[in-house]
Amino acid sequence: MNGRHVLLVAIAACGALPVDAQQVARDPAAAAAPALTVEPSGRGRTAVTLRRGRTPLELSIDYGTPVLRGRAVDALAPAGRVWRLGANTSTTLKTAVDLMIGGAHVPPGTYSLFAVPGPTGWTLVVNKQSGQWGTQYDQAQDLVRLPMRVRRSSTPVEAFTMWLVPDQGAARGKLILAWGNVEASTDWIAH
């Protein structure tokens, strides 16, 4: 086992984070960074464990991680068109709790996430289908569409990345997407 795995096992065994929304940083030097694992398959995963009493309840997103490789975000995720929000298989949101995302109710279940990029804002699409290829989008299955705040980052992100960032000690936080110089975000609250 390498040092990173030892650290993760030690944190998990000790329950070292005394908060209701727990998350393990991916790098000990970046303790403030949200948990993110990237698997060899080019899939990323971000998750938050929420607690109701002693019962752990997970909120997670699994997504493909496209890489820019010198291309522009606008060329890969064109403005005004539904984008698969990742690569390959559809991006999957799984929640064991009722959520409010950007003010919209999302009941417990498994959903696909899409986005509609725009020059001044992005729209997050929560779709009731799941498990399909990322380009198989059926608008009739949309649960909700909600606006996301967008800002331009001075530090570009080469590989598309998503984070569920919990507020310290609370069952709420932010969903953040970053790619190139674009960072889009919205709030989430677990009930």
Explain what the structure shows.
The chain has helices spanning 3-14, 73-76, and strands at 37-38, 43-52, 55-64, 91-95, 99-101, 104-106, 109-116, 122-127, 142-166, 172-190. A hairpin with a 5-residue loop joins strand 9 (142-166) and strand 10 (172-190). It has a ten-stranded antiparallel sheet with strand order 1-2-3-4-7-8-9-10-5-6, with no helix packed on it. It has one domain. The model is unreliable at 1-32 and 37-41 (pLDDT under 50). It contains two helices and ten strands; from the N terminus they run αβββαβββββββ. It starts with a helix and ends with a strand. The protein is mainly beta.
List the helices and strands and how they pair.
Blueprint (H helix, E strand, L loop, with lengths): L2 H12 L22 E2 L4 E10 L2 E10 L8 H4 L14 E5 L3 E3 L2 E3 L2 E8 L5 E6 L14 E25 L5 E19 L1
Overall average residue pLDDT: 82
| Fraction of residues in β-strands | over 45%
**Helix and strand run:** HEEEHEEEEEEE
| Gyration radius from CA atoms, angstroms | 16 Å
Helix count equals: 2
Care to count the β-strands? Answer: 10
CA distance, first residue to last residue: 37 Å
How much helix is in the residues? Answer: under 10%
Strand order of the largest sheet: 1-2-3-4-7-8-9-10-5-6
Entry summary:
This protein is mainly beta and 191 residues long.
Record keyword descriptors for this entry.
191 residues; mainly beta; ten-stranded antiparallel sheet; 2 helices; globular
